[in-house]
Amino acid sequence: MTKKLLGTTALMAVSFVAAQEVSAAAVAPALSISGNARFQAMGVKNSAKGSSAADGDAAANPRNGVGSYGFTQTGEMRFAVAGMAKNGLEYNYLIALSGNTGSSTSVSENRIEFKGSWGALQLGDTIGAQDLMMVDAVNVIGGTGGFDGSWLDAFTQPAGVFAGDSMVGDPGDATKMSYFTPRVAGFQFGLSFTPSSRHEGAEPLTQSADTSSTVSNVITRKNFGGALNYTHAFDEVGVSATGAFLSGDSKASTEENAAKVRAYQIGGLVTYRDFQFGAGYIDNKKSTLVDSLRSLGTDAGKAWSFALGYTYEASKFTVGYQQSKTKVATGASDAKGKFWSFTADHTLAPGLGVYAEADFIRFTVPQAATGGDASVNGGTAVFASGASSAPVPTALGTPGKKSNTGSVFILEIGRASCRE
Q1: CA distance 241 to 192
Q2: CA-to-CA separations, 296 to 18, 291, 327, 328, in angstroms, rounded
Q3: Which of 229, 240, 301, 357 is a good FRET partner for 265, with 20 to 30 A between their CA atoms?
Q4: Which of 355, 379, 364, 313 has the alpha carbon at shortest distance from 146?
């Protein structure tokens, strides 16, 4: 999550120093530490290999036929400092350090927050209201998160197929400002503003796209993301629903124009005793598509999903499904995705758990959209320990096999978390 306001760093520093001297009603800043460590062993098998990077060549695309197993290790440590002024203003600072040694970025979140009876203001590098307030099938699915989880670490997503739980054009944890209203009669509204999806941290301000020449390389600017959530409990039944939107300008790295971001997402969650049910829908319209794609009649994809979960003592079992379709060209069949997930989670001890996940995936892209062979690539990927969540491409997908069918199996042994 990300929030930004000029002068907030200085304000926080002054508050920390002065907190010891204010009245008894104030709360001096205190440090809390939490985190987790996740180990994952992965086995990968894909039945077909292409002859180029675009077709999933083994040498160019390691997720497509290179190696039968491997291990990953990641984690996160979160340091939070929180206090309260004598006038009741709550303030906190959070920095999260990534445990992924293979990443060039060591900080995964860095933000400041102020809270009071008027609501909450978040400033910095963090996700926006449209993500933070969303409730849907992903809130039910265990393991790594099913279609919003780690499957992309081992499975090739064809270009032209939409998958995941974020709207196209989502700025992620780029530097932003977010405001959340107090919850009134079960309703809460949140709004985030991100000047540029490319900017994070203290990087120089820039409004240019990346230098890559790929037409899908688009940044968003003047990005607004909002969400309205309703939550209520009726005896043993809990109900929560969210409607969210994204709106902003787009800039491509090529000379082409890119469509404005105009996307929306709705989701709901119902709980009854030990049962949970979630569902969601995403419509990306033509968000971020460049002229050469829009001229073909392409859109950015739609998807709907559901999940059912059951909790029994220290265990949870879930089944989830997502189906997507993307219009790739006028007169051509739609590109489609079908994604089933089955998960089982078990808590062994406080801060220690295991899980198993099986994902069955079928992505198809029509031949007319690829201009060539639309053969199916079947494959199996096996994980044996881990729970990291890999980001899923939110535009037309990563270059890969034109169609892909297969499965991902995940078994975690020893997910550890802590809080101090």
Answers
A1: 19
A2: 62, 9, 9, 7
A3: 357
A4: 355
> What token pair was written down for 6?
């000029």
Q: What SS3 string covers the chain?
A: CCCCCCCHHHHHHHHHHHHHHCCCCCEEEEEEEEEEEEEEEEEEEECCCCCCCCCCCCCCCCCCCCCCCEEEEEEEEEEEEEEECCCCCEEEEEEEEECCCCCCCCEEEEEEEEEECCEEEEEEECCCHHHHCCCCHHHCCCCCCHHHCCHHHCCCCCCCCCCCCCCCCCCCCCEEEEEECCCECCEEEEEEEEEECCCCCCCCCCCCCCCCCCCCCEEEEEEEEEEEEEEEEECCEEEEEEEEEEEEEEEECCCCCECCEEEEEEEEEEEECCEEEEEEEEECCCCCCEHHHHCCCCCCCEEEEEEEEEEECCEEEEEEEEEEEECCCCCCCCEEEEEEEEEEEEEEECCEEEEEEEEEEEEECCHHHHCCCCCEEEEEEEECCCCCCCCCCCCCCCCCCCEEEEEEEEEEEEEEEEEC
Q: Are 308 and 317 in contact (CB under 8 A)?
A: no
Q: Tell me the whole-structure pTM to 2 decimals.
A: 0.80
Q: Which residues pair with 114 in a beta bridge?
A: 91, 121
Tokens 């200085």, located at residue = 10
Q: How would you classify the pairing of strands 237-252 and 218-234?
A: antiparallel
